[in-house]
């Protein structure tokens, strides 16, 4: 037995040893070295056998070693931050094998092509302040217009959209407010077309958006660029097989937050506890008015594009359909955008022709914003409809005649119809001719036509006296035409380490706006036709249906511009530009103005003293100064304008309407001028693993346009538009990017931006002797009993959005009175406050700083992105809360739960700091989880990706209102004045397919 066992054991061990030897003979070992383009070893690079869990990292000199690999064919992948991914196929034999890799430095950062005025440049050659945002960085989810793609993404650019109304636009400010009267919107340049409508672009068609922030960059656009310039580049055709792409999503939207008012049970209990009662007709019901006017909205978007062509002829075409159903009933927008383009090369590619045609049709249904205040204030115990015959005149809707600003919100929603249509058509043609090597002559022709049509109708049963019993309709139909011709030369010469470039051009733009008619009518026998047939109204004697018809406005802008630049070895860079604009909008004495700029950059990383360091892969210091302008006012503001007056006179036995001067002449009227000094530091560390920008700017705007009160006589009208006021903005912006980790399976990158802007009003004096103001009250509130009260002041030395109200001290429960403090320090009750003489500066609407934090994760085929943004240090005057704090009037209007908790029974009748709240917030703006399918063996799909997105998932704030993000535009930002549209929360499912 023992011998048999021993023999069996020996045989078994021998078999195992033989098997082990055979197995070892079939395994391979791979070793080698990872180096950069100069032959230096690259430590920390990830070397992986594709498709297998076999990987390692290169050592200090770039050496690596992988063992236990099966013999045969494999694909080896090397990843390293700051370098392009390298891949090689290899056939391994049993035993040792050698495979070396040479990594090329990633060029996506420094060699990125950035769009600048009338040309392009590599990022490392930029001397001004330009921020670029690629599609993968855009905000995800339900996006109404392309400007929302940038919200929170660009330091210093505030894209503010208060509420969730799909028919409303955004308020955009770049580096703070810089005007008192003119528009603060930036200039859009779409595919080289200056001033093109952003409505012509679908988000899915955008390739990049470049934001020029400082005046040294924007001065090349002269009188239109004081608020910055946003370049939008869209998809173009490429040589090769046709590529068909589809992007689509569907979304469900709901109300993110509501006004916190009492429900029927709580309201009845409050009345009972405090000995109050309501009229019999207003009780016995349980109505959630906010719920009655809102719904869960459904939205969807579809974008189909086709690109392709040959080296000589390339084409692109796309169509986008967007339908956004608002969360308020009878509210929404439907939009179709179609685009087509052809690029043709000729004469051995020395002539390049491009033709584009775009059309956007936007149809929208609007609601009266009074429904929101009504839904908050209307008693929850009141009915929506009533069978009482006295309400038949209101269409059966329950109404309370005689109560100020108290309307049934459901009735307003259903008895007022407003639809708008905006049709924008643009065709443009560009020809680039290479005259000699380095000299290109470009010519651009553009034609843009906008057709606007608005229909508005108030039913015959509408509670408003203008419509009750007769109906009211108005119709607006306008056409706007914009024609542009631009011709310019670009010249570039490189010799050894020296590069010279120059550009010179001419521009002519003719604009015609408000070519159309506005008319109204009353006295309809039926509501069936709405505003479609105004002549069916039976007008009372003396009714003028064309009282406020639009004034046709035409203007011409002629410009000469040029730029020169010098670059030595990508080390020292200098650029200067000059533009002269002549505009018919301004006074005959100030039609022409000149806008210069100069900027320089020094790439320290290219200096010899930086050769031996490995920390900075790029380090650039730049500075610039420039002057730009703002001409965003209507034409004819510099000349005398006549119009109908309120009175009539008897002429030949007939009463005639009187005509007189409605606008004074100002031959010295000119554009606003903004000068800006900007200094910035751009850096890249560890071969692009970390990068960022730090900037400081000083922005000074003078000759602000402002409408002053003037004596009459000597002036024929009591108002005059003049220049003279000034405003300053200073700030710091920081952007930090980090490619934290990356290998074949997993990567994580993050970007943080921070911006602080300090705004200050300079002078409010005009450039006309003895005309000016020391301060101006803004922000009219208009609450019941608040006649003529304001909440804001425009005051030299203070920022726009300064709250100027009574100082609230507290509530005396024993006396039942609120207590306030006068500027002298005296404590008084609210009846002893004289507005605005006893008001004080009590807060500011503009934030101390804004920030955004973007995060991107990738694990194999999965990707995750989430973006947070916020503001800090801004305040809101909560007029909505003030209006719902009338506890003593709870028998005639609803009140908020916050007011009940506060327990102040004195009705607020003055604007005070009691209603100024901290509005700082942090919002999870959007989060997206996606999966990319493996389509390598699929004959139909080149790429396929499925994703889900959540928008506005949460907001952290101390603000008690519906949402802390209220309007920040105009002279009275930061006021929540009851006309809010609830912000939405969205959940999106989408797909991206490439065929």
3D structure, described in words:
The protein is mainly beta and 995 residues long. The chain has 8 helices and 51 strands. The strands form 10 sheets. The chain has a 22-stranded antiparallel barrel. Strands 11-16-17-14-15 form a 5-stranded mixed β-sheet. Strands 1, 4, 7 and 8 form a 4-stranded mixed β-sheet that branches. Strand 28 and strand 29 form a beta hairpin. It is globular and about 105 Å long. 40% of the residues are buried.
Tertiary shape: globular
Q: Which radius of gyration do the C-alpha atoms yield?
A: 34 Å
SS-derived structural category: mainly beta
End-to-end Cα distance, whole Å, is: 73 Å
What are the SSEs and their pairings?
Layout: H1 2-26, E1 27-36, E2 46-49, E3 54-57, E4 63-70, E5 72-79, E6 86-92, E7 95-98, E8 101-103, E9 113-116, E10 119-122, E11 130-133, E12 157-160, E13 171-174, E14 187-190, E15 193-194, E16 206-212, H2 215-218, E17 229-234, E18 240-255, H3 264-273, H4 289-293, E19 297-309, E20 313-325, E21 332-346, E22 351-366, H5 370-377, H6 409-415, E23 416-436, E24 439-458, E25 472-495, E26 498-522, E27 553-568, E28 572-583, E29 592-603, E30 616-630, E31 641-651, E32 654-663, E33 672-685, E34 690-709, E35 719-742, E36 746-761, E37 776-780, E38 790-794, E39 802-805, E40 807-812, E41 817-821, E42 827-829, E43 840-844, E44 849-859, E45 862-872, E46 875-878, H7 879-883, H8 897-902, E47 916-918, E48 921-932, E49 943-957, E50 975-976, E51 984-994
Parallel strand pairs: 1-7, 1-8, 14-17, 46-50
Antiparallel strand pairs: 1-4, 2-3, 2-5, 5-6, 9-10, 11-16, 12-13, 14-15, 16-17, 18-19, 18-51, 19-20, 20-21, 21-22, 22-23, 23-24, 24-25, 25-26, 26-27, 27-28, 28-29, 29-30, 30-33, 31-32, 33-34, 34-35, 35-36, 36-44, 37-38, 38-39, 39-43, 40-41, 41-42, 44-45, 45-48, 46-47, 48-49, 49-51
